[in-house]
């Protein structure tokens, strides 16, 4: 297996960190290819919990290179802190590499994120994580961004920081923000952490392709999820990067012919943070139970996540768009108190809307426009639940590679509806709390 791509099939927070950590046992490198510290990946090893925002989840495994790829945006201060925290907990970070083409999030990007969000009225607010992700990608696409490699060229860096501060002050001022940015302060702060950053800065595509040529196995770890993707997500309530298989190539510098396996991670129910329509959202005691039992509060912002039934229209479209062959189903234990569970398999549209848009009244693909999505009504199948299982019962299923009664029917329905094989079923946050169903 040369390259495995791992992606979220919903609105992020599917449990990708845990699955990445599990798969990293057989990998030589784990690579992030998009996003920045808007992500929050939680990994539990025994009694120890690690919360990672920018460092790839592979860092916890000894001997695995953890690469922050070309397509990422890196807040150097957050990275520096995360590296120091890991070191203080006995995790070596000597294998963490930052692509010299990755863009750097500057303090003014964070402020611009806040001011831009405040200037959006009511329902047009995106609900960003406020980490400066969007403004940093704006500078990247505007060809004025600062890349990690610029740290090696002090006079070029100074020129770029001065321009960045000037432009950001002008935009902030125009949007009613009181802020002016001092380039000398930014440059001084950058110099203070260069020692921890510059030696890790490498030509990541060259490094990764050399590894692959020598027979290495590489895991490409997506952040956020399909429906936060800038192209196919619920635009404009999306992040600023592409969370798709295609970008695993573009954002890492590894050609797609190396990709042999694409794994989608789906939570057994659906959650989303921030704004935007959510067809299977539950504003009742079941949604509340999912939030409490599933600890559905953002790893990055601590915001409560909106919760609802599993929506297979989302997962099916994600499978199709990303060539997903396998699914990892997470947090199945969270639903175990329910006697019955519902799964959305299709959306119903009002006849008049369907006629106007040239669509059938029942659709199976995720709609491309939010106005259409707002009119979609979920069509549910109701299945028997799987009941609460003791630790020993779960462990017995794990060692046999079987599923509890009820959960087997849930998994079969998913496989039939989305045409992908469920190969991993997770029933708790720990590394070991996973049933492997074959295929890996
Ligand atoms: P941004 O990525 O901070 O610009 O935020 C844009 C949208 O993506 C907001 O709705 C965020 O809540 C959402 N978002 C960004 N990163 C994550 C994530 O890792 N999990 C879930 N939602 C996210």
Please provide a written account of the structure.
- This protein has 440 residues and is α/β, with parallel strands linked by helices.
- The chain folds into 3 domains: 3-99 and 201-263, Adenylosuccinate Synthetase, Chain A, domain 1 (3-Layer(aba) Sandwich), CATH 3.40.440; 104-197, Adenylosuccinate Synthetase, subunit A, domain 2; 268-436, Adenylosuccinate Synthetase, subunit A, domain 3 (Adenylosuccinate Synthetase, Chain A, domain 3).
- The chain has helices at residues 16-23, 76-88, 107-119, 133-141, 154-174, 183-197, 204-213, 245-250, 285-293, 312-322, 351-357, 370-375, 391-400, 407-418, and strands spanning 3-8, 29-32, 41-45, 48-52, 65-68, 73-74, 96-99, 103-104, 201-202, 218-221, 259-267, 270-272, 306-308, 310-311, 326-330, 340-348, 362-363, 377-384, 421-426, 434-436.
- The strands form 5 sheets. The protein has a 10-stranded mixed sheet, with helices on both faces. Strands 14, 16, 17 and 18 form a 4-stranded mixed sheet that branches. A two-stranded antiparallel sheet has the order 3-4.
- The model has no long low-confidence stretch (mean pLDDT 95).
- Residues 12-13, 38-40, 126-129, 131, 133-134, 223-224, 228, 237, 239-240, 273-274 line the site of inosinic acid (IMP).
